Amino acid sequence: MNAHFELITENVSKHVMLTPAEKDLFTGMLQPKQIKRKHHWVANGDVCRHSAFVISGCLRGYTVDQNGYEHVLSFAPRDWWMADMYSLLTHQPGSLNIEALEDTEMLLLPKSSQEDLYKQVPKFERVFRLLAEKSLVAYQQRLIDNLSLPAAERYDRFCKRYPTLIHQLPQKQIASYIGVTPEFFSKMRKAM
Prior knowledge:
The protein is of the alpha+beta class and about 190 residues long. The protein has helices at about 5-15, 20-30, 85-90, 110-120, 125-150, 150-160, 170-180, 180-190, and strands at about 30-35, 40, 50-55, 60-65, 70-75, 80, 95-100, 105-110.
């Protein structure tokens, strides 16, 4: 089996055991995609038609407010999934931008194939339900943190959630994720 497919099947196997035939069916639905650093996979206004699994590199999901400021919602390093969930589930244009922070290789699972997968191998509903639940919990906790915690504690939670990204990402990306200016973030890190 291709090394790319091994990583994604290992990811799925954290939730369910797959037979060789189920693995073949699943990997046969995946579409390899490469994006260069600073290129978008999904842009505001696009309809997101795939879930992406990151093989190498890193994606960031962000929005831009009416003043032109970027607000990072999430990152997807190696072995993580990402999509504009609103757009993927409603088939409506989304508001999320998903950009490669470095050259990134991904495997795309079309939404239509995901639905076929649910019918042919019902245990995949469990996989994607668990991924959705985990994502919902993380977003809820992140919202509560942003409303109630000081920046230093939000940074600490970022470090726990994304330990591999602490030294990999530019400081301005981390600052945007925790909701502070790059200048404030720099001063805060020096004080810590």
